[in-house]
Amino acid sequence: MRLRRMLLVSAGVLGIGLLVGLAVLRLGRHLPDSFHNPPIFPGAVALTRVEADLPDGTRFPHKISFRAPAEPAAVLAFYHAALQQDGWLIQEQRATPAAFFANWHYDNKSPDMYAYTVFTEVVGPNQTVVTLLLEYLPGM
């Protein structure tokens, strides 16, 4: 009887430990910093920014545009590396020479998704207009 009680208590403590561990993992997976603080290509000028609200009221940069002193390939490579390093999943199959797409989920079970799109447009030699579009897509 005493052994059975010890086993039950041990199992209960182990179960609570697992639940706490899972909660810590879940809470530890924060939205990448680049969603609220997007990296800006070095040397960018004429920055414009439009903000939006998340459902909890938090503001985030929804659309940022600027002119970069580089060709589109260099701009896209910069954002590809920065976003991938920050935890975004790059959608390689949707990439084009002028744009790429990335998304992020809290976990594989959450229907909510965050999307990050980088668009480029050549406007002159070594000059590219860049548009960053950040979106919260509930239920995607």
Largest sheet: 6 strands, antiparallel
Q: Averaged pLDDT, please?
A: 81
Helix content: 25-40%
Count of separate DSSP helical elements: 3
Q: Give the amount of beta strand, in percent.
A: 35-45%
CATH architectural type of the largest domain = 2-Layer Sandwich
Structural class: alpha+beta
Major beta sheet, strand line-up:
1-2-6-5-4-3
Radius of gyration: 21 Å
Assigned CATH class of the largest domain? Alpha Beta
Measured between the Cα atoms of the first and last residue, the distance is 51 Å
Number of strands: 6
N-to-C order of helices and strands? HHEEHEEEE
Shape: globular
What is the number of independent domains? 2
Poorly predicted segments: 11-28
| CATH topology group of the largest domain | TATA-Binding Protein
Can you tag this structure with a few keywords?
140 residues, alpha+beta, TATA-Binding Protein, 3 helices, 6 strands, 32% helix, 36% strand
